[in-house]
Amino acid sequence: MAKTSPVEFVKQVQAETRKIAWPTRRETIMTGVMVMIMTTLLGSFFLGIDSLFDLIVNALLRLAQ
């Protein structure tokens, strides 16, 4: 493989950077809001599941006494 000079490397990086399709401000905000909503829903779901398992384990432990 041929070696690339540092100047040529920087030019190639700039050319590739121009090809990136950056999201709009609205898309970024909407994605952030969706992440927050999904994180809250999943956190609530796992809290509920964990609480249910806690009740079951405590009930079983009370039976064993």
Automatic annotation (TrEMBL):
CC per GO annotation: plasma membrane
Gene Ontology molecular function, alphabetical: protein transmembrane transporter activity
Tagged with keyword DNA repair: no
Matching InterPro entries: SecE_bac, SecE_sf, Translocase_SecE/Sec61-g
Localization per record: Cell membrane; Membrane
Topology versus the membrane: Single-pass membrane protein
TM helices/strands, residue ranges: 28-49
Keywords recorded for this protein, A-Z: Cell membrane, Membrane, Protein transport, Translocation, Transmembrane, Transmembrane helix, Transport
Principal location: membrane
Any coiled-coil regions, as ranges: none
Gene Ontology annotations of biological process type: intracellular protein transmembrane transport; protein secretion; protein targeting; protein transport by the Sec complex
Subunit and interaction comment: Component of the Sec protein translocase complex. Heterotrimer consisting of SecY, SecE and SecG subunits. The heterotrimers can form oligomers, although 1 heterotrimer is thought to be able to translocate proteins. Interacts with the ribosome. Interacts with SecDF, and other proteins may be involved. Interacts with SecA.
Family to which the UniProt record says this protein belongs: Belongs to the SecE/SEC61-gamma family.
Role, per record: Essential subunit of the Sec protein translocation channel SecYEG. Clamps together the 2 halves of SecY. May contact the channel plug during translocation.
Entry protein name: Protein translocase subunit SecE
Gene name of this polypeptide: secE
